[in-house]
Amino acid sequence: MGRMSKDPRVENSIHTDFTHHMTYGEYLQLDKIVDAQSSRSGHHDEMLFIIIHQVSELWMKLILHETKAAILSIEADDLSTAQKRLARVSKTQAQIIQAWDVLSTLTPSEYMEFRDSLGQASGFQSFQYRMIEFMLGYKTPHVLEIYKKDLVLHQQLEEAYREKSIYDVVIRALHKAGIPIDEEVLERDVTISYQANPSVRDAWMRVYQQTDQYWELYELGEKLVDIEDCLQQWRFRHMKTVERIIGFKKGTGGSSGVGYLKKVLDQRFFPELWDIRTEL
Ligand code: HEM
Fold first, then answer.
1. What is the CA(51)–ligand 1 centre distance, in A?
2. Residue 10 lies in a domain
3. What span, in angstroms and rounded, lies between the C-alpha atoms of 87 and 95?
4. pLDDT tens per residue, range 166-223
5. CATH of the domain at 65
6. How far apart are CA 129 and CA 141, in angstroms?
7. Where does substrate bind (predicted)?
8. pLDDT tier at 2, thresholds 50, 70, 90
9. What's the domain count of the chain?
10. CB of 126 closer than 6 angstroms to any ligand 1 atom
């Protein structure tokens, strides 16, 4: 036995001839992904800044994929599949919350070295983030303007803006289960951000007080709470990380910066699911 055979990676069965087979890199199109980190400033720390955004956008892609599928499952009355998908959404959100720890290693002095090279680019223009907000029911038509220069993105976002959110679909599921919901909620204009309604609060009270009878809706309600909880944690960590790196300077997107990010924290997605906790 030669010295080479002691290497645990050397096994006769390992494939090494890929002339006619697809490799790992080809399957994942890694040539595109790992070639997309072009630094504008040439500064060492810009790599972290680019990768953290790209990784977050990739996870957002999965969040959208799973949330879309969950909406379809709820509409098809398959609540257990929807729960499975939404559990994956909140686990994915945990990854992008954790990502702030890596970005926190970027100091104000390091960021200032390359901040000017971003121009007016800002996460404020994140298409996928707006798609997620629309799907969760926070409809802000003014953000559509940003995508005017890309007709495909503009159209996709406009469609999501006109679609029912996951909460609209869940409220319909409550109604289908025989729980009274006001007609004005079922017929509401879904291009407007959802506003709390007493019949929806009563419906959730019923579900949370009679869990045996409404087990699947109860579990679904908790999945929505997980998602809103994670989204708020993400927003909070973003705001605090931004304060840590730029203090109270204005954002590259033109907003007041931390002040703006604090204000966004007040916005709620599934208000009754939080309100009932005081009464239960
Ligand atoms: C040094 C790091 C970062 C700084 C200083 C920063 C700063 C800001 C500021 C000031 C805003 C408000 C809009 C503006 O005026 O630009 C904003 C918005 C936003 N940023 Fe960041 N950000 C950072 C990292 C990230 C990362 C890693 C992501 C992940 C994708 C991200 C995603 C977003 C999103 C989605 C918004 C829109 C929030 C909303 O409108 O509710 N940011 N950012």
1. 14
2. no
3. 13
4. 999 999 999 999 999 999 999 999 999 999 999 999 999 999 999 999 999 999 999 9
5. 1.20.58.480
6. 14
7. 49-53, 111, 115, 252
8. very low
9. 1
10. yes
